Amino acid sequence: MRPQLLAAGLCGGLVLADLARIGVAACALLLGVAVAGLPRVVAGVACVALLGWWWGSVRLDHLDRTVLAAHVGEAARVRVTVTGPARRGRFELRAPAVVTRYARRRLREPVLLELAKGRAPPQGGVLSALAVVKQPRGAKDGFDERTWLRRRGVHVVLRLDEWHIVGARGGLGGAADALRRHLRASIARGLRGERAAVVEGVVLGDENGLSDQLRQRFRAAGLYHLLAVSGQNVVLVAGSFLAVAWVLGISRLLGHLGALAAIAAYVLAVGAQPSVVRAGVAGALCSLAWLTARATDRWHLLFVGAIALLAWNPYTLFDAGFQLSFAAVVAIFLLVPRFHRALEGYPLGVLRPGIALSAACGLATAPILWAQFHSVQLLAVPANALAAPAVVPLLVLALATTAIAPLSPSAAAALAWLNGWCAAYLATVARLVGGLPFAQIRSARALLVLLAGALLLCAYASARLWSANVPEP
Fold it and tell me: Disulfide: which of 8, 57, 167, 256 matches 287 by Cβ 3.0-4.6 Å?
């Protein structure tokens, strides 16, 4: 039986858990029916699908379980561990955390911290605080924070009135915090302001340092995906390590083992974002396939990445990052080769691959962007074509800066200075393209006009193609 079918079946079962929960008894009964009455291939896929359905139901029950929701409106002394970077809003700071003690009760429940503007708690810090338990905000301006947080296992917001640091987390989380601090301190060494913020956004997915105006320009230009860590980053991390190993004469075995370690370290440092986990799983499986002399299949790798995310949290299916990441990868598999062939004969030169990639991904992700954010970026293809020459050099220079920083801080600062020009170029492209009045549409009427024009254009092009292919009598 092809492993792609089993992976697809398991993926489908995890998705079914979002529609309905299933218990152990029902799963066992359906498994018996599948094994008894279906052909072998169908029975195998049905079995893994049912197992995925059961496991997804177990995970959703766990994510929906909460203790603190019963204490909304109460105040108590708490101990929390900050699990991510604090984000600055207009009136407050917010940071993800895990509560390990509420009053005298020990527990472990994820929450969202809300603090007054000022000093931000460090990622990985263990805080002792006086907190008020609040409900998350409801639907407002097209965004339902309560539902968004619930799908991440978060059911309450803790408003901290006073807090102080009493320690730091250890274990794997502590290692991730240390790696992130090292990357943040080295990738933009010597840079300040906007250039440092763009470098940190592209490499770490942290756009907190960007101004609201520049962040909006990145969105309008269709370049906001550059500020969310993508699979391209993981590919460059693994490829750079393999290239250095080849230059130094290190064996391919040790090179691939090192690439696996580099991928794991990078995923830990930037956090388990859907695109990063998907690319990290795919890169790790490719290295393992080489080490075990087994062939790899790109669809199988894609399904395994989806399984890794959905098995941990089936609600991830509704996450915009998950949807955009996998839609873009499917577009790369199916549409990019066709778009590349269609552009042959045009004087595009080295821009052809980038235009084909941007057009394919833009077409595949446009419905998701409209459904999730009620906007469509009309100039995403030229914006990405303009930005493409600076993205890979920025990532390579950032990785080189990180590698050189412990050996030569001055050389690392020189590389970071060069990288600052790449960051400035990306910011300039975002401002120029995103600042145009027709860069994006946000109204349903404008979308309908755009779709009508596209249909008329397709009809005209089809008629011309048909008339050109009809032989003359």
Answer: 256
Show the beta-strand stretches assigned E in 50-142.
75-82, 87-88, 92-102, 105-116, 125-134, 139-140
**Structure token digits, residue 363:** 């077409």
Are 133 and 74 in contact by the 8 Å Cβ rule? The answer is yes
What whole-number distance in Å separates Cα of residue 424 and Cα of residue 204? Answer: 17
Contact between residue 146 and residue 135 where contact means Cβ atoms under 8 Å apart: yes
Confidence of residue 459 (pLDDT cuts 50, 70, 90): low
Write down the domain spans for the chain: 3-63, 68-169, 180-442
Distance CA 205, CA 203 (A): 6
Contacts of 317 (CB under 8 A, 6+ apart): 15, 18, 310, 323
Q: How far apart are CA 209 and CA 196, in angstroms?
A: 8
Q: Where are the alpha helices (DSSP H) in 64-211?
A: 145-150, 171-187, 193-204
The single-letter code of the amino acid at 29 is: L
CA 176 – CA 458 distance, rounded (Å): 50
Q: Is 119 helix (H, G, I), strand (E, B) or coil?
A: coil
- Rounded Cα gap, residues 294 and 286, in angstroms: 9
Q: In Å, what is the CA distance from 278 to each residue of 67, 141, 208, 272, 435?
A: 32, 31, 24, 9, 33
Do residues 187 and 401 touch, judged by C-beta distance below 8 A? yes
Has residue 290 got a pLDDT over 70?
A: no
Please choose, from the candidates 429, 50, 60, 404, the residue with its C-alpha nearest in 3D space to the C-alpha of residue 226: 429
Three-class SS state of 346: coil
pLDDT in tens, 357-399: 888 888 888 888 888 888 888 888 888 888 888 888 888 888 8
Q: Which two tokens stand for residue 399?
A: 């990785």
For residue 223, is it left (φ>0), alpha (ψ between -120 and 50) or beta? Answer: alpha
What are the backbone dihedrals phi and psi of residue 394, each rounded to the nearest 5 degrees, phi first?
-65, -45
Task: Tokens 């005209």: give the residue.
Answer: 460
Q: Calculate what percentage of the chain has a pLDDT beyond 90.
A: 20
Number of Cβ atoms within 10 Å of the Cβ of 438: 8
Burial (CB < 10 A; 0-12, 13-18, 19+), residue 31, is middle
> How many residues in total does the chain contain?
473
Q: Which residues contact 151 (CB under 8 A, 6 or more apart)?
A: 63, 313, 315, 316, 318, 319
Q: In CATH, what class is 68-169?
A: mainly beta
Task: Round to whole Å and give the CA distance between 216 and 133.
Answer: 32
pTM reported for the whole predicted model: 0.81
Of 271, 315, 462, 302, nearest to 19 (Cα)? 315
